[in-house]
Structures are given as C-alpha cells and as structure tokens.
Design brief:
two-stranded antiparallel ribbon, 3 helices
Length: 142
C-alpha cells in the first residue's frame, strides 16, 4: 500500500465520519484495510448514543436508516441479521458502515433427515433461518 493510497483512505474515513455525524450517528471505531474480497478499504462501526440493551436492534435499524438518508448512494446488505451499508468512491476506494444487528428473529423453515450413525438412529433436525422485519427495505426500493 502506498502512502498516497493510505492518505486517500484516511480522507475517505474522515468524509464518512462527517456523514455519520450529520446523520446523528456516533462512530465507535474506524479501520483502514487492504480492500480485498473480504474487507473494504475503510470500515466504520456506528451506533446511536444512550441506547438500552433491549432497544439495541431498533437503534441499529435507526442508525442505518439515518446513514442511508444522509448518503443515498449506500447499498444495504444483511448478513445473518447484521446490517452493512457499502459504497465505492470515484477513486475506487471501497467503504462500509456497520451498525450491528437489526430487529430479527430465528424462524424454523423446515426439517431435514440426518442419516443413522453408529449408536445414533436416523433423526429429524430442524432448519432455521434469520428473518428481519425490515423497515429499511422501503428506503432501498424507493
């Protein structure tokens, strides 16, 4: 990584921090990475201040909504209920806001038969999926 590239990432992290601040969202930490297939170049973890544990999922949804309204070019992704908002600059720097887990529930969607093993008969096992009641979809599809 060249110094110029590192400085460009630093500037992008600063821009993202200002977007979060304008949206009323606190940045808990920022990380500069190598921008490979796993990590974006710049990652910021965000939250809303003074949230009790019971309201954490709703607060994470609200933080994501505020960020999307402040920066409409963001693309929302959910991975196992966690919320990621990603984007790319005109210079090719990838960035990501992470707001934590949203309002989700674990739902049984079916079952599967596990074959018999030594000392274990064939048995049925439930299959679960994480489903999120997603008020953010209105912003994504608007």
């Amino acid at each position: 990584m060249t110094v110029t590239n590192l400085y460009a990432k630093y500037l992008q992290a600063d821009r993202m921090n200002k977007i979060a601040e304008a949206a009323g969202v606190r940045v808990d930490y920022a990380r500069l990475d190598n921008g490979d297939s796993i990590n974006s170049d710049v990652t910021l973890q965000c939250s809303i201040l003074n949230v009790g544990f019971s309201a954490e999922g709703e607060a994470n949804e609200e933080a994501a909504e505020r960020l999307m309204l402040a920066s409409p070019s963001l693309i929302m992704e959910r991975k196992n209920g966690l919320i990621y908002l990603t984007g790319i600059t005109s210079q090719g720097i990838t960035y990501k806001f992470y707001t934590g887990g949203g309002v989700c529930e674990r739902v049984q969607v079916g079952t599967r038969i596990l074959p018999a093993e030594p000392a274990k008969p064939a048995r049925e096992e439930p299959i679960f999926e994480v489903r999120c009641i997603d008020p953010l979809n209105a912003l994504v599809t608007a």
